Amino acid sequence: MGSFFRSEKMFLCQLFIQPEAAYSSVAELGEAGSVQFRDLNADVNAFQRKFVNEVRRCDELERKLRYVEAEINKENLHIPEIEDLPNAPNPREITDLETSLEKTENEILELSQNAVNLKSNFLELTELKYVLEKTEVFFTEQEGINGTDSLTRALITEDSSAQATNIRGRLGFVAGVVPRERVPAFERMLWRISRGNVFLRQAELDQPLEDPSTGNQIYKTVFAAFFQGEQLKSRVKKVCTGFHASLYPCPSATTEREEMVKGVRTRLEDLNMVLNQTQDHRHRVLVSVAKELQNCMVMVRKMKAIYHTLNMFNLDVTKKCLIAECWVPVRDLAGVRKALAEGGRASGSSIPSFLNVIETSEGSPTFNRTNKFTRGFQNLIDSYGVSSYREVNPALYTIITFPFLFAIMFGDAGHGLILTAFGLYMVIEEKKLMKQKSDSEIWNIFFAGRYIILLMGIFSVYTGFIYNDIFSRSLNIFGSSWTIDGYNISDIQGNAELTLSPYTNFAKFDASPYPVGLDPVWQAATNKIIFLNSYKMKLSIIFGVAHMIFGVCLSVVNHIHFKKSINIILEFVPQILFLLLLFAYMVAMMFIKWVIYYPQETVDCNNETVTCTQDVLDVIRYGPSCAPSVLILFINMMLFKSSPPTGIGCQEFMFDGQDVIQTAFVVVAVLCIPVLLLAKPLYLLCCGRSKKSEHTSENGDVNQGLELTPEMVDTPSPSPAHAEHNEGDNAVGEIFILQGIHTIEYILSTISHTASYLRLWALSLAHAQLSEVLWTMVLSIGLTGSADGDAQSYVVGSILLYVLFAAWAGLTLAILVMMEGLSAFLHTLRLHWVEFMSKFYEGAGYVFQPFSFKIILEGEDVVED
Amino acid sequence: MGASVVPILVFTILWGIVGIVLPFVVPKGPNRGILQVVLMLTAATCWLFWLCCYLSQINPLIGPKLSNRTVLLMAREWVS
Predict the structure, then answer these.
(1) Domains in chain A, CATH or no CATH each
(2) What is the rounded CA–CA span in Å between residue A622 and residue A604?
(3) Which Gene Ontology MF annotations are present (chain B) (predicted)?
(4) Which residue from A5, A253, A788, B79 has the highest number of Cβ atoms inside 10 Å of its Cβ?
(5) Residue-wise pLDDT tens digits, A461-504
(6) Residue B63 in contact with partner chain A when CB distance is under 8 A
(7) A517 torsion bin: left (phi>0), alpha (psi -120 to 50), beta (else)
(8) 3-state secondary structure of A112
(9) How far is A30 from chain B, CA to nearest CA, in Å?
């Protein structure tokens, strides 16, 4: 059965490693990934540990790598994924790595700095160029003053042209560039400080400019402010600095301006060339780094993980070797030994490291070795609680019981096929889908549960086939066992509804029932629900009781494994008796009712013309009218009541002597309660003492076994020993209280859990009804739309069908498969966690978290995402 | 008493093969135990599910109530 039946056996081991071999040994162990180290310096804070400096160095390296990565991403370069991961670097390689990284970082830093300088230079020149070009327009407009431009006229209204030239001669101006969104505020401010005496001309730049430091695109506007007098000039300049407007010198003479534009253009061209070259160089550097980046990243992460682990180690008193404690699965012990030897050889140390297995009573971590198929099921269990060490692992049984209980609720072959197809797609495309790591959380959850979904789908097809439900329609493969031979045509025409007689069909014609699943006739019957309710209710109780009995039986395996065989008599036997005598008996009654009551011709003994002899009465007893309700029988059994038979010739009980058996069953079941309540505490009181003393001496042995390292073993082991002693003193009361709670919980829960399984019936009924409603309300309208038979109605009908089919398919997917599937899933989860696992599962363990590079690297990827 | 021997036998043997015979022929390997449990549980649950459905129909105490339209259709389509 391997490890999946119960968690793997673990050893607590001590490793003695030479300091010089420590790094490479831990690296090897990290590659093997089968060891969980314990922190031996838990009381030492993070800054006082031995390898703090190394960890800090790794942090620094990581920071540099992140910087380089950010730069590469800015350039939109692709960082190639590496197929095989490099090993952790040797200590010697670390220095090389450091220097090369330092060099790259500096180079990139320098290049970026240069680029920023050049770019801001470029920006200034571009802005100047625009200023010159745009202001050119303003000036030419002013030159052509003769009243063509209304704005110019507004400035110098009602002045004679002579005056105008005069004033213009004394007008000063400032030209510059301001961000576009600030223009309105800027304009208003200028207006206010000058009381309207500043004239502002502006022209928007069509192309956005790039901010050199952030690389953002900014839209700017060129402006020229005209004013009069020095005082106003200084004020205008202040406003400009306030609005972060950059001012540029702009000669007032046209020729000078032209000269300047020319000069600026040539300088811009030169600058552009230089910029391109810098860009190329930077690109080349980044491309060459990008190739190595992933490699470096993995190496640094591994290195950091190693030093973190080394920080958990203890230094020997003589400072000549490092001591580590770790949990190792027994199956991997040889691998660990090999890894240690390998590590020692790699570092060339003369003294080999060795491994010492120590006995311990401490709680070992729980390790269930899973594969891709079982992992999903194990996760279902682990999210309830990680199983205690070496406890029976319910995940093994969940593989089938989970999809099956789901399918009872989701029973529809059509919907099951959709689910199967979805699961199959994910399973077949597994490798491809796994590579494209998706960010969508919902998809990841579905993908992680792909095998669960597949199995749920397959089982749903089976149960749907048995329920004879395919998108709420039935198949008549084997020929229905109901025929309508009993009626003639006038009967049929005269009555709107006809009931087929079970007697005619099954006794007279001796029909045998539909061999596989439900008879298709029920799909068309108007009293379908009555039949289905009785069938599905019984079904869910039968499966519920079977599931619970199975759970209680699993507790035996636990009792035997933990060497508490006495619990089998004191706990298991009363528990299972209680369950069997009451609820399994009810299940038995259901089967008896199915088998012994059969359809008969109605004989009316009230009628005086009919003589009912004893023989006839004996037959009537098993007729349809006399079949007692199992539920009423069960309630009467519990309350020691009796109710009168339903008619003449009927009996209250199904078989003779049933009342005696029932009374005996109830009495024994009730007697189980005090046994469950008292037997175990009393046994512990009488015989438990001697055992307890043995137990403490075992603890003493542990201490002696660890003589080699007295200082560290002293700390953990006394605490459990102390706890045991304290427990011994006030144990009596506690044991009784615990057992009392346990008993009450079990007794009450058997009753409530049995009722809880009725959700199987409720959900499967709801599912079937919902899908039938969808069929009759949506799709069947489309299917009957073209019944008239002329050409036009066919056209209309086909269009209607097209639309209605889309609606039906969409609703089927969204409501019946997705929502109903989710709700059935949750109910199944509950049935497993509460109803099944409470019978045997403790779930008080903690997960084995091996030190493994693979897990660390994958984990960081997830965090980054 | 409408129970017929054939379907009961066929289904019991079918699921019996899955649940009892197949677990013995599962290839050896680390997952042998898991496969055996899977097969046995599948057979047990599926067989019981079918059995419940079959037993609930061998002695029907009520008959299906059908509209006369359905009855006529049945008479035309289902009677061979």
Answers:
(1) 11-108+280-352 (no CATH), 116-272 (3.30.70.2750)
(2) 15
(3) proton-transporting ATPase activity, rotational mechanism
(4) A5
(5) 999 999 999 999 999 888 888 887 767 788 788 888 888 888 87
(6) yes
(7) left
(8) helix
(9) 24
